[in-house]
DNA sequence: CCACGTTACGTAACAGTGTTATGCAATACT
DNA sequence: AGTATTGCATAACACTGTTACGTAACGTGG
């Protein structure tokens, strides 16, 4: 009997890359499976063989995004809380479509894909460590709550900026500076 | 010559209401124009006559949502900053699909509708007033930045909670309490 | 070395989507 | 009453994700 042929890894990567670049260029909304397959020089059924469907392909793109995001956070970890915050915003502004998929997709209820459980954890691990270092005597619950507060603050400002929210009267730069300053003050005390 | 017949207002409202309830029930993603029209007892072309298309119908639903949200905020304005924050979260948790459309739809790049310019302003006006009252001597820029910070904090926590983000180790209740407490402390000082 | 069972994936069909051309009944003014 | 004009139902169109089918390529047992 015959042994099953392994999935073609180069085609898989090519599909992933063209999907990612097409999403980054046109937004996840208007990207069709057919256009991805055609741009990758294959047919739609290849996606079904290699991933299972459009949702799984998007999930794979999204997991790649989480990996890149986590790497960016870990690289900034040495600089402390403020560096983490600035790297967070920079990555999001550099990958707006990916960030939207990662954190806003299921919010809008539009994309039928959600990150693999646990995919986001390496991304916030550096933040956890930084908060724990800044609050030496705090309990685990206090630290965890503070992580939620800081993450919420940073994510909120970034996602409002990305949606093109009005920003009536302020600049996102200034608001972000003020938020980071306030976080530093309330944690550094 | 004949005078044009005014648009049928009852059909317009029925379409708006069934669209809103269907969005609240199934999420904005999986709601089709055909299903809305059928549930309203009419045909898809009625939507084109009355609104112009699906995007405009969604925009109308979304503007209704902003009106309801602004009313909720204005009602809570008397209670100060903390009441505003709690009303913000309560409204969002009560209308998750609408909140996602209002603030996360364009983030995900999935919904081709965006709020009418200026529709969000009445919603944050009470927050503006409360921040200005809490910082009597502050400049306009400082007040505006602070509004951005507070809005970002509240929106970030609420939207993370709505996306079903991991919340590894903390409860959203506790994080929200901590955030509101911190806002009160940094503004009340 | 070669047939064979298994797989990768192109072709073509299907159901469902938003949108649009066509046509008819209802309307309000002359 | 007659008529120009509108509201909206019917049906077609282009497009989407998904799936049955068929074919070419492959690794292995003989």
Automatic annotation (TrEMBL), chains A, B:
Alphabetized UniProt keyword annotations: DNA-binding, Transcription, Transcription regulation
Pfam family, one: TetR_C_33
Domain (HTH tetR-type) ranges: 9-69
Keyword Translocase included in the entry's annotation: no
Classification via SUPFAM superfamilies: Homeodomain-like, Tetracyclin repressor-like, C-terminal domain
Segments of the chain annotated as binding DNA: 32-51
UniProt protein name: WHG domain-containing protein
Source organism per UniProt: Arthrobacter sulfonylureivorans
């Amino acid at each position: 009997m015959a042994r099953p042929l392994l999935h073609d890894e180069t085609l898989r990567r090519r599909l992933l890359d063209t999907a990612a670049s097409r999403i980054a260029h046109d937004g996840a909304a208007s990207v069709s499976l057919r256009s991805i397959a055609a741009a990758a020089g294959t047919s739609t059924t290849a996606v079904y063989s290699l991933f299972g469907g459009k949702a799984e392909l998007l999930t794979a793109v999204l997991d790649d995004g989480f990996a890149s995001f986590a790497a960016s956070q870990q690289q900034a970890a040495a600089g402390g809380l403020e560096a983490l915050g600035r790297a967070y915003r920079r990555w999001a502004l550099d990958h707006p479509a990916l960030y939207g998929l990662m954190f806003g997709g299921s919010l809008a209820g539009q994309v039928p894909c959600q990150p693999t459980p646990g995919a986001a954890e390496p991304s916030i691990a550096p933040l956890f460590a930084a908060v724990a270092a800044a609050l030496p005597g705090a309990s685990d619950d206090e630290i965890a709550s503070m992580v939620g507060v800081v993450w919420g603050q940073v994510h909120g400002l970034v996602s409002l900026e990305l949606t093109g929210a009005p920003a009536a009267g302020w600049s996102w730069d200034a608001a972000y500076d003020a938020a980071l300053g306030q976080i530093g003050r309330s944690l550094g005390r």
